[in-house]
Known about the structure:
By secondary structure, chain A is mainly α. Chain A contains 11 helices and 2 strands.
Amino acid sequence: VSSFSVAQPGRARALFDFYVTGMRTAVQAQLQYRVNNYFWMLGWIAEPVIYLVVWTTIAEQSGGSVDGNTAGYFAAYYIVWTLVRNMNFGLSTYAWEWRIREGILSGQLLRPLHPIHYDLAFFAGWKFVAIALWIPIAIALSLLFEPTLDPSMLEVVVFAVAIWGAYLIRSLNLWALGTVNFWTTRGAALSELYIVVELLLSGRLVPLQLLPGWAQTLAGLLPFKWTFYFPIEALIGDLSQAELAEGLAMQVFWTAFGTALVAVMWRRGIRRYSAVNG
Amino acid sequence: MSAFGIAWLHFRLGAMNELQYRANLVIQIFQSLLQLGIGLVMLALVYSHTTELNGWSQPELLAVLGIQILMGGVIRTAIQPNMTRLMEEVQDGKLDHALAKPVDSQVLISVREVRIWQAVNLVTGAVVLGVALVRLGGDLGVLNVLAFAAALAFGTVMIYSFWLVLTTAAFWVVRMDNVLDLFDGVYQTGRWPVGIYPGWLRFGVTFLVPVAFAVTVPAEALTSRLDWQTLLLAAGFAVALFAFTRWFWRVGLRRYSGASA
Lengths: 278, 261
């Protein structure tokens, strides 16, 4: 159960195969529920559209920009936001609560791999369906809101890497948060608090430069901005090469942090776990 | 037994059921405060960069936020739980139990569930609205208050009808649990006056999902923006939508064949 890191080459190969298979299964499963997937996507697409409309309205009212951010910038920010959001959703903590309450986790414990691999592979596969469904939405939004988007080749490459970094960091954090359900049946309250703090300090609600200075400083000390603001800015902003490299390094740091957190929480939590039938 | 009798009976039953779980009240208050916090932070951010949004001042938008929370409370206390249950029963073929009862089926499926702790949002919304009205200062005419009450009632009827039409579609589509996410997402548009949205979206959140009628129109009544044509339109649309819902429900029922039928 505790095989969280895999060192031997044979096992690395096996793990790779496992991920490919897991992702392909997720693609097959999700493709069956296209309508349901679209309902879900249209539901959350409302969120960035609202922010976008509000800030565009303010920009146009005040002569074209808010603190130097133009309507075209906001359009680019929130349209890229939709792709980043598509990338960084992972297992919700509610699913965790359900797994523990219903004793589903017991079955998962019998499998040879650490259970996080099943989740990471499943959601990674789902991304491909989500992105396929997202493309028409992105085109429609671009036609409606006219984003200012002019990335260099390097920025595109960094973005392509950073969205997977965002996925890893956020998935690991949410997974660690989910293990809180080993100790309490009220884990949902904690995860809602997490989501609110993330909303405010990640760049999900507004581009971070619109926050007051102290809030920006605070955001710099937390992992959240590397899962929203950094990937978006990498593509649409004017980050220097040093800043791009620093951002990726921070993602590596927070991924390592999340991995350690998951390992510790899991080891302690599993000792407390006793299922309904076990 | 009258429709109201049945509704009252189910309300009491549901309330007694939920009163067993008092700790949920604390959780609900916590969630309400978090949501309110986000709304207030967003307003503060917006008005730190501008003094008015499309002609609406900060206290006016606070009133919109209050009404949005209030109406959200109504939806989550009384409307959404019934619709979720209906959706599940259509999927599992358990709706037969409700249909076999000697009362109007639409009345019955609309009143069976009530989540009283969600009513916390009624209080939160009312308090926010109250604060907003005090900050607005102007004295509120009787006509404004009456128009507000009427607009709120029409809005509730429209949201209920919208939800039931959508849920009735489950007779054909069967699996549509993500509709809940869709509605929750679109409902967030109500935080802002509908006038700020581009035309296509304004049409969508007015006539496809009647959020504008449920939140913006009542807010317009309180801020002396409402003309009688809009209120008349709201009344007409509420009646038409309700009639359509009634007809659509019956068509859907004919389509339904349960697990035992």
